[in-house]
Amino acid sequence: MTFHPYLTCLQPYPFEKLRQLFSGVTPNSAYQAISLGIGEPKHPTPALIEDALRNNLAGLASYPLTAGSEALRRSIANWIARRYDIPAPDFATEILPVNGSREALFALAQTVVNPAACKDGKPLIMCPNPFYQIYEGAAYLSGAEPYFVNADPARNFAPDYSQVPEHIWQRVQLLFVCSPGNPTGAVLQLHDWKELFELSDRYGFVIAADECYSEIYFKTDAPLGAMQAARQLGRDYQRLISLSSLSKRSNVPGMRSGFVAGDAAIMKQFLLYRTYHGSAMSPMIQAASVVAWDDEIHVQENRDKYRQKFAQITPMLEQVLDVQLPDAAFYLWAKVDHLQGISDTEFARQLYERYHVTVLPGSYLAREAHGINPGANRIRMALVADVAECLEAAQRIVAFCHELKGQ
């Protein structure tokens, strides 16, 4: 029996590595388990979305169109216009609903990567480092290779693209951007987008902007979006694709509902690919998605919960960890090696053993590139549970850090 040859390139997911790290460890039974490891929203699903699901069960009797309903595409286009203060994209040619941004990120690479067009080895898909592991899998299974550009703490964790050699840019066919970033929470600014657009113009690669954390932010101004940046710079959406999701915005990860928007020429080919891929969204999910995209009250309430949570917990952890409030998203990205030189993996293992709190080692979210693993000696904490549980976790982490300092 034979399998796809590039499957051997895929690494275990970070949570499988974490399971192996904790293998054989018995956590302290004096504490209830608290996990800050997985970025899965835990706030309640809004009632208006649950009601919409219950009220549209009749849609299960019909095969859905891959392109989605006109009502959903119009709803998404109108949301983009309101959220980013730009003209609404053409719902007929510039919008596609998808079953969550994760599957669309993967499928997009299958659509835009052309191995035959690269004369000097395999084509490259450029990724930030640390990164969402789907980017890497999408690269390998599209016949490309990932090329990692390390996040620079001195640049608010933005990758320094000026360090990328000319011969690398000539092989890049797709560039993944994550803003707000996972795990850093950093948001790209207009000058960052200007640089990326100019590079795309010069070398002809597609930009895929992963913006699934765009609605969880802590400052007055909402994060700048890719399509918004293009408009502010007087551009159209050529070679630009934006992806977003209801999962974090509306606390419905189980709905698997998102969208892809941008370059109409790419969208046309992406729709063709998806027609064969069999990835149409359920009619009841589409109906509930319209309700979700059309309402901002539940989004503001959700954002307020995160703001209150981070306002309480960040100062506590700042006393013992090298950490600060991020621009956006629901993660804290903390440096830990000042604590007796402990590694991120050992920090996570000992914290789990002594205090039954799970955090994710930063090295699991990155790859060694250009001589370093930029996630090493950092941990990611997902503050997705309610305030009381997150406060309890923070108190245990503070106690654990004091123990380490006393060793």
UniProtKB/TrEMBL annotation:
GO terms for molecular function: pyridoxal phosphate binding; succinyldiaminopimelate transaminase activity. Its EC number is 2.6.1.17. GO terms for biological process: lysine biosynthetic process via diaminopimelate. Pfam families: Aminotran_1_2. It comes from the Bacteria. Its cofactor is pyridoxal 5'-phosphate. InterPro entries: Aminotransferase_I/II_large, DapC_beta/gammaproteobac, LL-DAP_aminotransferase, PyrdxlP-dep_Trfase, PyrdxlP-dep_Trfase_major, PyrdxlP-dep_Trfase_small. Keywords: Aminotransferase, Transferase. Residues 34-397 form the Aminotransferase class I/classII large domain. This is Succinyldiaminopimelate transaminase. The lineage of its organism: Bacteria, Pseudomonadati, Pseudomonadota, Betaproteobacteria, Burkholderiales.
